[in-house]
Amino acid sequence: MGGLAALAREAGHRVTGCDTNVYPPMSDQLQALGIELTTGFGAEQLALKPDLFVIGNVVTRGEKFPLMEAILDAGLPYVSGPQWLAEHVLQGRHVLAVAGTHGKTTTTAMLAWILQHAGLEPGFLVGGVPQNFGVSAQLGRTDNSAALKPFVIEADEYDTAFFDKRSKFVHYRPRTAVLNNLEFDHADIFADLAAIETQFHHLVRTVPASGRVIVNAREEALQRVLSRGCWSEVLRFGARKEEPGALRARGEPQAFDVLRGSLKVARVEWELFGEHNQLNALAAIAAAEHVGVTPEQAAQALALFKNVRRRMELRGEVATAAAPIKVYDDFAHHPTAIRTTVNGLRRRIAPSERILAIFEPRSNTMKLGEMKAQLPWALEEADLSFCNQAGLGWDAREALSPLGAQAVVAADVDALVLAITAAAKPGDHLLCMSNGGFGGIHDKLLKALAAR
Questions:
Q1: Domains of the chain
Q2: Which residue spans within 168-246 are E strands per DSSP?
Q3: I need a labelling partner for 332 at 20 to 30 A (CA). Which of 47, 113, 158, 386 fits?
């Protein structure tokens, strides 16, 4: 919704908004754009008299959202965020949509940067702040020339609004669709994986015959989606063995050749690490090719890619006599994403250095406890794990008991900081993972460690 607000502001509208618990980097972006923000959802905001209310999917009916009740009672115009985007921004553009359980934000940012580096001046909407751009959204080139102008969008499978239960990405009508991966998530709205696969197939149904569907060859769930029917060109990526026409990688994640079948078409050498980012890069390269950017050009752009804020972002370090203690911020919140993030850091650091994994199960799925049994598996490569129990309806200590003394559970963020500060040693890597602000734990840790 912050990105939508930025696009509307760039298009010349006066934009105001309301939310709770707004935190950086989005709060900083909104302030810099001059977008007025009100805390809460009070009915008194009707006094602002906007021409249109754009409703985010956090909003529901009832007493928690008196503003929404007032809008309905007054018969005022309102629309969902995805519908507003489709009607006012995406119409007439070549939409490149990036979908998947994991890696959407990073891959979307990669793709937008590749197109920007190639001189295509794309529009984009990313669920984070790509460091190459410094903003989460921009309209891009919108002149009246004949060619469709590219717009790159992070395509989320979460539902659209309380009055539209379709996945958001169904509104986007892409010509290029990336299906990065697919696992069970969003247990608050989906009964099982099959229900999510149905929504992904709805997305596939919207891609024209002249379009391209780019699919992770390793994902069985995505193969089931395509088996329901596909009417567009399919390009697969990430196969472990040679496959005619498909893209795959050969080499380490930080320096690898891009192969089409057995033919080398590019080489990527960049700052990112982890096999997941190698796969993200293949997907972005395949999508960029569909709008005329060669794999070699894409690889040159990726060499300059700076990733998105809150993706293994180093928030600071505290000097010690032996070696600094580093504090990172990462958006990982699904067990697979946590495991992938820890593994990526493990492969980057020296064998003697420790990882302290610090996380809060904050997503709706994790709060429900649907995936708590997977947490020991997700954290097994960390030397110590620290969990915030606050807000959970299930016992984190019991869920993490297979880790034994390697897991610490605290009642709140302040107690967590005390436990981590007591355990941290010179050379440690403190990896904080949450899809929220995590109570400002990063700055609290840096301050406490410096004091110690």
A1: 2-76 (3.40.50.720), 83-302 (3.40.1190.10), 313-451 (3.90.190.20)
A2: 176-179, 212-216, 233-237
A3: 113
